[in-house]
Amino acid sequence: MILITGAAGYIGSHCALCFSEYGLDDILIFDNLSTGHIETVYELQKINPKIKFIQGDLKNKEDISSVFKKFQIDSVIHFAALSQVKESVVNPSLYYSNNVLGTVNLLNSMIENNILKIVFSSTAATYGEPKYTPIDENHPQIPINPYGSTKLMIEKIMDDYDKAYNLKSIRLRYFNVIGADEKIRIGEWHNPETHLVPNILKSVFNKTSEFKIFGNDYDTKDGTCIRDYVDVLDLADAHRLALDYLNKFNKTDVFNLGTQEGQSVREIFNISQEVTRQEINFKIVEKREGDPKILLANSSKAKEILNWKPKRTTFDSIKNAFEWEKVLFDKLKASN
Ligand code: UFG
What we know:
Layout: E1 2-5, H1 10-21, E2 27-31, H2 38-47, E3 52-55, H3 61-70, E4 75-78, H4 85-90, H5 92-112, E5 117-123, H6 146-165, E6 168-174, E7 176-178, H7 196-205, E8 211-214, E9 226-231, H8 232-249, E10 253-257, E11 262-264, H9 265-276, E12 282-285, H10 300-305, H11 314-335
Parallel strand pairs: 1-2, 1-4, 2-3, 4-5, 5-6, 6-10, 7-9, 8-12
Antiparallel strand pairs: 9-11
Helix pairs in contact: 1-2, 1-8, 3-5, 5-6, 7-9, 7-11, 9-11
The chain binds uridine-5'-diphosphate-4-deoxy-4-fluoro-alpha-D-galactose (UFG).
């Protein structure tokens, strides 16, 4: 059985979906539902009735150690984390206890039960301000916010656990994740939402919330920031390949996940207008603190070693995200 922590959230739920559709369907979801949604778990259970769900919190050692006693877990995919950069600056204590302490409890329970394989959801935020671009896995890791620091600390803890206890981990460092399930059963659902694509699309439904572009005088082709947008289903597939690699080679490793194609905020906005066939209102506002002008992945290692092939175009991703926003809008309207 595969334990997926945080699978009631955005990326974890798409990973559970991808694994289920691939026939890796013996899945246990562990989530405290602090930012994830029980509705997402129910959707996943409709798709794959074998999925089991435990509501628990990694901060409570007993919650997670009892899972390993009760179920026969072979490997772990670990998503459960808080992931809002701004919130992490305002409330670092929340982030260190939730992300770092929570992961230590998870890893200790794994060691106690002799489960020594984990795929970990890391981030480009561990690199901090880019020293060169595109960023490869050897780029210095100097995070500029507590969120990035928590993920880097976890990577270091995993190194130490490898040396001492033989725990093997694959760390996947994500760039900017977008998109939704192609059948629109699940999608991105944050509250509050801070990410670019859902914010653009939400402004189509909510006429009072005008979409804001954070700065247009960066030293880039059109003055707006450039990011590397990768589809959530392609990303989910990389987790399947990473687990396969771990099972085959029993080796700790790290991979960037991005497409290596940079797109500006303005370009994403234009594609969103194309997808929605609407003129979307926007205004240019001040730069957001801590936004590097360009973040681009060198992801050739994942392509070569994991044989990862991201398939979806940005247009596809935004189209699925738009269809999902419609579903979410109706869902939220009905619950009000
Ligand atoms: N942006 C806007 N308006 C918005 C939201 C975003 O102009 O309403 C811009 C940002 O300034 C940035 C780009 O769109 O230039 C992307 O912003 P996101 O907030 O969507 O994503 P980030 O690049 O800030 O963050 C992502 C992940 C983080 C991770 C980081 C790694 O969401 O979890 O990449 O550097 F830490």
